[in-house]
Amino acid sequence: MSRLFVVPVLLLATILSAVTLTVIGPWAGPEMEKFMPVLREFEKQTGIKIEYKIYRAEDLANLLPAQFAAKKAPGDVIFMWASFIREYGQKGHILTLNGVLDEAKFLPGALDAVKVGDKLYGAAYTGKVKPGFWYRKSFFAKHGLTPPNTWDEFVELLEKIKKIPRIKAPIASGDGVGWPLSDVTEHFLISFGGPELLLDLIEGKVRWDSNLVMKGMNKLVSLLKNKYFGEPTEWTLVLKQWWNGDYALYFMGSWITGMVDDPNDLGVFALPGANGVVFGADYAFVPKYTQYPEEAKKLIAWLCGPEGQALQVKQGGHVATAVGIDLSSYPPVDREVAKIIQGVTALPDLDDSIGGEFQPTFWDQLKLLWVAPDRLNDVIRTLQEKAPKK
Amino acid sequence: MAFFVVPAFALVGIFVVYPVARTVVLSFLDSDGKFVGLQNYIKVLSSREIVNLEGLSRGFPLGALVHNLLWIAIHLPLTLALGLVLAVLLRNVRGGAVIKSIIFLGMVMPMIVGGVMINFMFDRNLGIFNAFMEIFAIPARSWTAYPDTALLALIFGSVWLWVGFSTVLYSAGLETIPKDLYEAAQLDGASALKIFTKITIPMLRPITIVVVTMSLLWELKVFDIVYVATMGGPGGASNVLALQMYLHAFRAMDFNRSAVVAVLLTMSTLLVSLPLLRTLRDDQS
Amino acid sequence: MKPKAMLVSLLGWLVALVWILPFMGVFMTAIRPLDELLNGWWNFQTFRPTLSNFAGAWNHPTAALSRGMLNSLIVAVPATLLPLFLATMAGYGLSRYKFRLRTPLLALVIIALALPQQTIAVPIFQMMNALNLVDTYLGLIIVHTAWGIPWIAFFMRNFFTTIPKAMEEAARIDGASDITIFFKVVLPLAMPAIGSAFALQFTWVWSDFFLALILIYSPDKLLATQRIPLMRGVYHVDWGLLSSAAILVMVVPIVVYLILQRYYIRGMVGWSLK
């Protein structure tokens, strides 16, 4: 009799253990190594195996539409841009997660990016924040500098730094495809135009030549004209130079904590008056064509829930979109960042959200603005041309 | 006979001739497929991306078309002159063949790598060009990051890449000039300069036509270098027609405008190859 | 040596030095750790060469060059052999037979030489999409083949006009068919020219970026040339990695050039001189 049970139980066990979920994410190298422990924990708890594949968002943007059209999907839980998730959710290629996720467990606004109406197509995972200007505490101590509380104090600080002999420029300008320059610009827009401004620009409700935008842009340009910013340099190279003392401040995302020798020497301050911070959360979705919808939903609920996110932030360099995670889960450096964003509105990245033709134009124009700040009006005009219109 | 010719030309017909025709057709349609005559051409030629008249007072960008023309204006004479000078110079140098090989390496590498090397050469921290400029007390900067120098940096970098072509061709050509012409001229007492201008240059004419044609084609079609080095920036200051065609088609999804740029580009290249076409046709008949 | 000759030699080698300097720079950047390069690669205060950049580029998690070089090879070899074969036949046909379409075909060939790749980009993408060949090596190989046939046909045709028809006529009198004559008599004679065409076509296909950019986008299918701009992109990439990748990618055509140098040069020169 018991043998009759053994067979189906064995079969079930084989089937269950045969379930391998494929998770697709953009992280490679050290970033991937931080992600794997979270996946392993899920495997341990549920016995469902997970295979991780690396695909950059840009490549997925080319690959997925074709796969979806063929009713296929390369993974069961896929990390992708929120705008993509919304678009293809509407087109019917993505499973809704209403009921699978507890929306109350997320930061206000965090899930908006993947919602259409009341249909929830994606889940918010941890993310990186772009909190402000980073400095080495040792550097500030050595030169008797303190973080500013007002705009005037900020300019004073820059002026003081400029006079330090070894300094190439007070603020390092990281360059690559176009961000971090775009990150700095967004920070200025938020600080002087308010958090709503970023959202309005994304929707095309506000013009680039409006007063609200120009306030922030003019402040930025005034700093550029006074040579407080360094020349755009490849962003990992300039990171080394900043660490070595060629620059004092570096506007960067919270991932910087994983890129320096001594994260405890890091300090960060936002521009005085910044009430919003760009939260680059990672979003994931479950495609309709997954072979294991129930298991995939289970995974995404756990991963993006407080448990999965808490594990991720423990690894360092991540900030959670889930609420209720104790500050002590964060490594000391990230705690500072987590503190900064308490009570502040989480905003999506401007150019990532608009995408299309605007994004490379935005980057290209900022590269121009940085070396030719007198061209502000031309830059604004071009941005307005390519901006989304309501 | 057909056996030899048909397979090859069938492929060419389907995958080259037809797409070209299709592009031409696309340039006269709008995004719904309606015929709009020359509207697209007017739109494109008057767009700031192609010709930017404000640039005349303000500085770069001047528009992709102007940038290509500038590329021609600087790159072509330099290629010709340097190629000839180097060919003459290296004729009697020990190990001249090795030197020529070194100069020619720039032609052999993929142009995407060429673009990386140009970026590298002009980089503020890592570029050798800045070390050179220090001699003239010119402050260091990343030359490809500034609108007024980005295009020029690319152009001069491309001279470094491409001069091997003209050098090698002229070298081969110099060998074909009969020595007795020189001897006769020297007996007549002609100066070195006279010999050079009255004998060498005219005898090299066929080669010059080839070098000029190939250079012009290359200067019009340049894409890889700009794509990887500056992506046309900053602010479009180093944009070129081929890149603009790509941006229209694959970033803005505007296939009709992109077709117009492609057609303009094609017409220019055909125009440029006419002299070569004519000499080749004359030789064949 | 006469002083003037010495001066000229010196100048010549100076030129060589100037020309090779950028290569040296890239090489130095590739083998030295980034910290040493912050003040310029020509500073040799510390010199701790390492091959870690090459390993990093070769095994890069998102843009591995090892995969890229393999992919480039998968495309370059057929995309060289196929047009070589087809176009040699076509060039032979154009040179030996007089037929009504000959002049227009010849003109077509010459026009195709000047054509920018941009002109066919969008329709080719649409065609390949319709044929389900987008993002496949086969699609890219077909386009390269079609693109290479005009110039190779022209090149081989010029070559064939320099070969006297005597041997072919003799074989024909002996009763051999046209096809046999081509494969048994003509092809062996054409080897030098085929060598040149091979060298040029292979390096051009390997070095191609634009057609690959249009037709290939799956990350594991990307060709070596496509991985280079990726390395400048979003993630943690530095000049050391980029330089080593650049060296790896350019090594292949340079090696082909060095081995087949005679044929390569003769191929390029042969367009202007007979």
What can you see in these coordinates?
The complex is a heterotrimer of chains A (390), B (285) and C (274). Chain A is 47% helix and 16% strand. Chain A has 16 helices and 14 strands. In chain A, 46% of the residues are buried. Chain B has 285 residues and is an all-alpha fold. In chain B, helix 1 packs antiparallel against helix 14, helix 8 (147-176) packs antiparallel against helix 11 and helix 13 (241-250) packs across helix 14. By secondary structure, chain C is mostly helical. The longest helix of chain C has 32 residues, at 65-96. Chain C starts with a helix and ends in a 5-residue tail after the last helix. Chains B and C meet through helix 1, helix 4, helix 5, helix 6 and helix 7 of B and helix 1, helix 4, helix 5, helix 6 and helix 7 of C.
Supply the key terms.
heterotrimer; A: 390 residues; alpha/beta; four-stranded mixed beta sheet; 16 helices; 16% strand; C: 274 residues; mainly alpha; 13 helices
Number of E-type strands of chain B: 0
Global geometry of chain C: globular
Order of SSEs of chain C, N→C?
HHHHHHHHHHHHH
Rounded to the nearest angstrom, the distance between the terminal CA atoms of chain B is 20 Å
The interface involving the most residues is between: B-C, 92 and 93 residues
Q: What is the total tally of β strands of chain C? A: 0
Tell me the helix content of chain B.
over 70%
Q: What structural class should be given to the helix and strand makeup of chain C? A: mainly alpha
Which sheet architecture does the biggest sheet of chain B show? Answer: none
Mean residue pLDDT of chain C: 85
Number of helices of chain B: 14
Oligomer: heterotrimer
- Structural class of chain B comes to mainly alpha
Q: Mind telling me the C-alpha Rg of chain C?
A: 23 Å
Summarize the amount of helix of chain C as a percent range: over 70%
Question: Can you describe this structure in just a few lines?
Answer:
The complex is a heterotrimer of chains A (390), B (285) and C (274). By secondary structure, chain A is α/β, with parallel strands linked by helices.
Question: How do the helices and strands line up, and which of them pair or pack?
Answer:
The complex is a heterotrimer of chains A (390), B (285) and C (274).
Chain A: H1 2-18, E1 20-25, H2 29-46, E2 49-54, H3 57-69, E3 77-80, H4 82-90, E4 115-116, E5 119-120, E6 123-130, E7 132-136, H5 137-143, H6 151-163, E8 169-172, E9 174-175, H7 181-193, H8 195-203, H9 211-225, E10 233-234, H10 235-243, E11 247-252, E12 266-269, E13 276-285, H11 293-303, H12 306-314, H13 332-340, E14 345-347, H14 350-354, H15 358-371, H16 376-386
Parallel strand pairs in A: 1-2, 1-3, 8-11, 9-10, 13-14
Antiparallel strand pairs in A: 3-13, 4-5, 6-13, 7-11, 7-12
Chain B: H1 2-26, H2 39-45, H3 55-58, H4 64-91, H5 96-108, H6 111-121, H7 128-134, H8 147-176, H9 179-187, H10 192-203, H11 205-221, H12 224-229, H13 241-250, H14 255-284
Helix pairs in contact in B: 1-14, 2-14, 4-8, 4-11, 5-8, 6-8, 8-11, 11-14, 13-14
Chain C: H1 3-31, H2 34-37, H3 52-58, H4 65-96, H5 102-114, H6 118-130, H7 137-161, H8 166-173, H9 178-207, H10 210-215, H11 224-231, H12 239-259, H13 261-269
Helix pairs in contact in C: 1-12, 3-12, 4-7, 4-9, 4-11, 5-7, 7-9, 8-9, 9-12, 9-13, 11-12
